[in-house]
């Protein structure tokens, strides 16, 4: 679809807009004529973003704070108008395997990646149902398809996001509200800059933002890219457990001695 994003949405709220993919999505939407409400914890980074385009308004927020999320949604809707599209993109990546398992990191992964989204859903859904319109986009990951090495905090939180999207999609469709789950592969952002392992088919953040916006315009349930990694990960999802664990041990953890 080649139509402008402004033909689809007037007001878009995006969380995790202070860096990486969220920042690029915010700027691309603003340049296309959409009013963008941008949230993240870093007020300074958001002010810098808002200074780059007059269509961006900063709403600093910690998505783990349910009351603050509710107040932010109310403020955006009072000041800018009803939110047509909410891109719930804030996320954290704590690389973690069994040997270095941290309960605090597991809790933080769920708190931001999953409960950050449920806090927003609770704040957004009543208004969208009342308006019989709206689009919720949850940013998950191909890492949510199956449990992967070093993703002991991240993968479960992203799997939960995909599950939530599946639950809400048919239910909200009855009220005219669209649900999309976005599953990117590797993207060059501050999040992945810490990784010391190969990241096949990695793409630039601007490219990821473009693909997200193009996918959201179609209104389809899943927007996943790049296709090479998506297909590989979907194939892994179909493998019976013994084959999957064999693959996980021998290929996804090359440094680890196989135990059989
Ligand atoms: N990069 C990849 O390869 C990749 C692949 C698949 C999926 N994803 C997903 O894409 C999304 C964006 O990631 P990215 O790669 O662009 O990473 P990033 O550059 O690290 O951006 C993460 C964003 O989330 C915000 N954030 C973190 N904790 C928050 C909190 N408690 N409340 C509000 N905002 C918070 C950060 O801002 P503050 O620190 O200012 O709060 C930042 O704006 C994430 O959900 C990530 O899991 C990324």
Describe this structure in words.
This protein has about 260 residues and is an alpha/beta fold. It has a single domain, classed as Rossmann fold (3-Layer(aba) Sandwich), CATH 3.40.50. It is about 45% helix and about 15% strand. The protein has eight helices and nine strands. The strands form two sheets. The protein has a seven-stranded parallel β-sheet with strand order 3-2-1-4-5-6-9, sandwiched between helices. The mean pLDDT is about 95. Bound molecules: NADP nicotinamide-adenine-dinucleotide phosphate (NAP).
Q: Give Rg in angstroms.
A: 18 Å
The class by helix and strand makeup works out as: alpha/beta
> In CATH terms, what is the fold-level topology?
Rossmann fold
Largest sheet: 7 strands, parallel
Total of domains? 1
Regions with pLDDT < 50 over 5+ consecutive residues? none
CATH class: Alpha Beta
**What is the spatial order of strands in the main beta sheet?**
3-2-1-4-5-6-9
From N to C, what is the helix and strand string?
Answer: EHEHEHEHEHEEEHEHH
Task: Tell me what portion of residues adopts beta-strand conformation.
Answer: 5-15%
Shape: globular
Oligomeric description of these chains: single chain
Number of helices: 8
| Mean pLDDT rating | 94
| Proportion of residues in helical segments | 40-55%
DSSP, total strands:
9
């Amino acid at each position: 679809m080649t139509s402008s994003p402004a033909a689809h949405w007037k007001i878009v709220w995006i969380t995790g807009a202070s860096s990486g993919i969220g920042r690029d999505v915010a700027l691309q939407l603003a340049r296309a004529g959409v009013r963008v409400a941008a949230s993240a914890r870093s007020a300074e980074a958001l002010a810098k973003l808002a200074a780059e385009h007059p269509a961006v308004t900063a709403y600093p927020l910690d998505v783990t704070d349910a009351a603050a999320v509710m107040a932010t949604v109310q403020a955006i809707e009072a000041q800018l108008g009803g939110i047509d599209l909410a891109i719930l993109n804030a996320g954290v990546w704590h690389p973690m395997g069994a040997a270095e398992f941290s309960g605090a990191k597991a809790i933080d992964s769920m708190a931001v990646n999953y409960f950050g989204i449920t806090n927003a859903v609770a704040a957004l859904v009543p208004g969208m149902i009342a308006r019989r319109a709206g689009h919720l986009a949850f940013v998950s990951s191909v890492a949510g398809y199956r449990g992967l090495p070093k993703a002991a905090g991240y993968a479960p939180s992203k799997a939960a996001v995909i599950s939530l999207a599946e639950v809400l999609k048919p239910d909200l469709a009855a009220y005219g509200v669209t649900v999309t789950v976005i599953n990117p592969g590797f993207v060059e952002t501050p999040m992945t800059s810490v990784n010391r392992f190969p990241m096949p088919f990695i793409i630039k953040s601007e490219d990821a933002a473009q693909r997200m916006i193009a996918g959201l315009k179609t209104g389809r349930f899943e927007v996943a890219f790049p296709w090479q990694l998506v297909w590989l990960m979907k194939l892994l999802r179909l493998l019976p457990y013994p084959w999957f664990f064999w693959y996980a041990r021998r290929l996804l953890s090359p440094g680890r001695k196989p135990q059989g």
